[in-house]
């Protein structure tokens, strides 16, 4: 299971869950993503793609996303994202314990 905060056009604080199906780009694109990681780029997409290429992921991977209010650096969450933190944690716990879940605010 992976959790990330990502802009997607659904409004800040929107929580969504999806199954990562493992589509992999060609090998040159995978190598470019490895190079980004070496340079310090932190990206869940890159992690999933590289780990998928090396077949180190479990059979089923779920991603829990929260639409950010802003993408700036800083300590803590924006008030909007902070307000759904407990929902995100509950969703992750339900996924870990029960499998498929419905998200209240998707």
Structural features, described:
This protein has four helices and three strands; from the N terminus they run ββααβαα. By secondary structure, the chain is of the alpha+beta class. A three-stranded mixed beta sheet has the order 1-3-2, covered by helices on one side. Helix 1 packs across helix 2. It starts with a strand and ends in an 8-residue tail after the last helix.
Describe the structure concisely.
Helix content is 39%, strand content 15%. The chain is of the alpha+beta class and 106 residues long. Strands 1-3-2 form a three-stranded mixed β-sheet, covered by helices on one side.
Task: Set out the fold topology.
Elements: E1 2-5, E2 15-20, H1 27-38, H2 44-53, E3 61-66, H3 79-83, H4 85-98
Parallel strand pairs: 1-3
Antiparallel strand pairs: 2-3
- State the end-to-end CA separation: 18 Å
- How many helix segments? 4
The structural class is alpha+beta
Topology pattern, helix = H, strand = E: EEHHEHH
Number of strands: 3
The shape is: globular
Helix-residue proportion: 25-40%
User: What low-confidence regions span 5 or more consecutive residues with pLDDT below 50?
Assistant: none
Mean pLDDT: 83
Q: Report the β-strand fraction as a percent range.
A: 15-25%
Main beta sheet: 3 strands, mixed
Strand order of the largest sheet: 1-3-2
Round the Cα radius of gyration to an integer and report it: 15 Å
């Amino acid at each position: 299971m992976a959790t990330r905060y990502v802009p997607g056009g659904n409004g800040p604080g929107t929580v969504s869950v999806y199954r990562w199906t493992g589509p992999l780009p060609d090998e040159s694109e995978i190598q470019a993503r490895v190079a980004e990681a070496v340079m310090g780029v932190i990206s869940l997409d890159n992690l999933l793609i590289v780990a998928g290429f090396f077949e180190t992921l479990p059979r089923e991977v779920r991603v829990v996303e929260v639409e950010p209010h802003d993408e700036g650096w800083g300590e803590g969450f924006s008030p909007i994202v902070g307000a759904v933190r407990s929902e995100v944690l509950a969703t992750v716990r339900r996924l870990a314990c029960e499998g498929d879940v419905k998200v209240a605010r998707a």
